[in-house]
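hey so i finally got around to running the thing on that chain from the lab meeting. sorry it took forever, my laptop kept dying and i had to restart like 3 times. anyway pasting the input first so we r on the same page abt which one it is
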Amino acid sequence: MKSNDLETEITALGETVRQLEAKIRRSEDIEAIKKLQRAYGYYLEHWQEEELIGLWSHDPDISVEINDFGLFKGWEGVQSCFHFEDHYPAYGHAKKAPPEYLHILIPLAGIVDVDPDGKNAKGRWYGYFLGAMPREGQTRALIGCGIWENEYVKENGIWKFKKLFWSEIISSPLEEGWVKKPSILNPPHRYGPPSGTNTRFAPYPSGYILPYHYKNPVTGK
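ok and heres what got predicted. didnt touch it at all, straight out
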């Protein structure tokens, strides 16, 4: 083999290695983001405020936006959103989830896209939940579904939430179903949402399609 041919082959192998390393990093990033999203659901279920707050970036632009519950901006806003003592006056502003409370939230059909810089990402998920929560003066068995369109940021090698957006489709009493009663609204936050309301809250049967963060994977449009 001529030296020029060998040099060309070594260069090609080096490029292949770089491409494979990039794919591995991207796959590892996606798996880390999936774990982050799943952890959020487990902590939310049990009112684990400290663990939830620990999932967020300290970026000044962080936010949480949850259907009728409102928009919470910045670090103080995120803390306020997950201060569960202020959520449920029916529980006497309890600091822990009562035994009768249930909120199982399962992320499904996730589509995660990591930016070329490897430091920012977006993800879309369905969230299905079963619940037992105080609504309309009593504990109601609830079944529901919504969509997350979230933004994530990598800080010091760790993926964290930057923006969480939850658009509820249904939140219905189990005995009535989503055709008869598509949505039971959340009880208002004790102090109200500090940053505004969610103007994109349009549950079933509105027909609203929450915009996709990604292009068509086949046509690219």
